[in-house]
Write a structure and sequence with these properties.
The complex is a heterodimer.
Chain A: H1 5-8, H2 13-32, H3 39-69, H4 73-77, H5 83-111, H6 124-149, H7 154-157, H8 160-168, H9 179-186, H10 190-201, H11 208-239, H12 241-250
Helix pairs in contact in A: 2-3, 2-5, 3-5, 3-6, 3-10, 6-10, 6-11, 10-11
Chain B: E1 12-21, E2 25-35, E3 40-44, H1 51-58, E4 66-71, E5 74-75, H2 80-85, E6 87-91, H3 102-112, H4 118-128, H5 144-156, E7 162-166, H6 174-191, E8 194-198, H7 202-208, E9 211-216, E10 219-224, H8 229-232, H9 238-247, H10 249-252
Parallel strand pairs in B: 3-8, 3-9, 6-7, 7-8
Antiparallel strand pairs in B: 1-2, 1-4, 4-5, 9-10
Helix pairs in contact in B: 3-4, 4-5, 5-6
Classes of the chains: A mainly alpha, B alpha/beta.
Chain lengths: ~250, ~260
């Protein structure tokens, strides 16, 4: 990665652009709405957390897709590397790259737009853990989709965060949603995180039961994602997908 | 059987190997063969004969429908990690990541194969395959000959007891191919390694292989010394025999 602008820049460039865009939007909203209403913690805080979740998910899938793009499956899976070690590598890579993005977002949001991240209190720790765990789970499932359906299916996985966002209530309370969307929101670990975020800003305490549910759900999804990836890998070895992707890429 | 220390067994033993795709497409059909230490065995046959399918099963990236594969005494189905620690490969369709330099690729794969004293090993291979001037060049911009030498350096990284070479000279001009063959032979002699080599160049096969196996429609039709086999079957050259196997496999009979 050292010396490669194409790899270093995406770690923080897009999230930095997001912070600038949404930072100025919150300033504008603060200026045109009634006094005392501060959009920085609700809107900019929500964008920051959602971008972190997205970076975590894309951190896993991008690392996996690097092996797809470089036609490296055959070389990689013919080594003694176990599938568990490979997935662990995806996770470690994602945690490191998303942390870089998080730090850049925090610096920009705090220094330029006055977001007080510590003002969210200790609840921010489970918030981040839920988003990290669920992001990893979605990233691993996304990688399994590409391994199962082939390199062209990468376009299915890039929009996953955008599809999840309306259900997760990132910018509005889940109660805003129609009932069927609320039902889906209950199955999404990020939903209680953003409900909790808004509760803290409103001066209310974080409801612990939904947050505990979110933590448990995220862990279950992560375990399920690892099992799915393992099953897809075993099928790929059985039907010859790993060898075929290298040959197909060549032709 | 611990395998690694035993010197009596073959480095590769394949028994009744079979691969069926779906319910009825038989790619490899009850194939059995072995590769001994210090032996170069040619796996020959027309396109679609089952050579690459067999190699993929030996590499653990394709699971057999039936049969067993033992590498240096270790059953790959039971102990994949230790079996693959003793194996490596180079294939024309498995280029190393082009966005990494030669040295970076060797480092990454050296770590994956858990190579001891990796820095020294990389220097040794860079020197051995004349890659020192290319050390910091990205693999994606190398010529075919240079890329093949890097792939071979990677293939020798972990000092494998079994080396699989799937058409290693396929994209090279005759001079570069001769250079690569010389390097492989020289290094194989020193490294006490068994090699399974596929090629469509019969002159090359006759030159490097101690023994050849002819595959057709997933089955081994013929096996023997590449210099004597053509005469034994009424052909002048190995290439003539190859053409006969490709066109009229039934006249030669399945093994």
């Amino acid at each position: 990665m050292r010396g490669s602008v194409a790899r270093v820049l995406p770690l923080f460039a897009w999230v930095a652009v997001d912070m600038v865009l949404w930072g100025f939007l919150t300033r504008y909203l603060n200026a045109i709405t009634r006094a005392g209403l501060d959009f920085v913690p609700t809107l900019l805080g929500a964008v920051l957390l959602w971008d972190y979740f997205t970076r975590v998910m894309h951190g896993v899938t991008t690392t996996f897709l690097e092996d797809v793009w470089s036609r490296n499956f055959l070389n990689l899976f013919a080594t003694p590397l176990s599938i568990g070690e490979y997935v662990a590598g995806l996770v470690v890579s994602s945690v490191l790259t998303s942390t870089v993005g998080l730090v850049v977002m925090l610096v920009l949001a705090t220094v330029v737009f006055g977001l007080s991240f510590l003002g969210f209190g200790v609840a921010i720790i489970p918030f981040m853990l839920v988003l990290l765990t669920f992001g990893l789970a979605l990233g691993i499932v996304g990688s399994a989709i590409v391994l199962s359906l082939g390199p062209a299916s990468e376009w299915f996985i890039w929009p996953i965060p955008a599809v999840v966002a309306p259900f997760a209530g990132v910018f509005y309370p889940v109660s805003t949603l129609p009932r069927w969307m609320q039902f889906i929101a209950q199955l999404l670990p990020p939903a209680p995180v953003f409900e909790g975020l808004r509760a803290i800003v409103a001066g209310q305490g974080v409801a612990m039961a939904p947050l505990a549910w979110a933590v448990a759900l995220a862990v279950v999804y992560l375990v399920a994602a690892c099992l799915i990836f393992g099953a897809v890998y075993r099928r790929a070895v059985r039907v010859g997908l790993i060898a075929r992707y290298s040959a197909e890429s060549l032709s | 059987m611990t395998g690694a220390s035993a010197l009596t067994h073959h480095v590769l033993e394949v028994n009744n190997l079979r691969k069926v795709y779906g319910s009825d497409v038989v790619a490899v059909d009850l194939v059995s063969f072995h590769v001994g230490r210090n032996e170069i065995v040619g796996l020959l046959g027309p396109n679609g004969a089952g050579k690459t399918t067999t190699i993929n099963m030996v590499l653990g990236v394709l699971s057999p429908s039936a049969g067993s594969i033992t590498i240096d005494g270790i059953d790959i189905a039971r102990d994949r990690r230790h079996a693959l620690e003793r194996t490596n490969f180079a294939a024309v369709y498995a280029a190393l990541p082009g966005n990494l330099t030669v040295a970076q690729n060797l480092r990454v794969f050296g770590l994956l194969y858990n190579v001891n004293d990796l820095n020294a090993r990389i220097e040794q291979l860079l020197d051995r395959f004349d890659l020192v001037p290319l050390r910091d060049r990205k693999c994606g911009v190398l010529s075919s000959g240079e890329a093949t030498r890097v792939a071979l350096a990677k293939a020798f990284l972990n000092r494998p007891t079994l080396l699989l070479l799937d058409e290693p000279t396929a994209s090279l001009d005759p001079a570069a191919a001769d250079d690569v063959r010389t390097r492989i032979r020289r290094y194989a002699d020193e490294a006490n390694v068994g090699i399974l080599w596929t090629s469509h160049n019969m002159y090359e096969v006759e030159d490097v292989c101690h023994r050849v196996l002819f595959l057709s429609h997933g089955r081994i039709l013929l096996e023997g010394d590449p210099k004597r086999l053509p005469i034994e079957h009424g052909h002048k050259t190995l290439e003539d025999l190859f053409i006969a196997v490709a066109r009229e496999p039934l006249t030669l009979g399945a093994k």
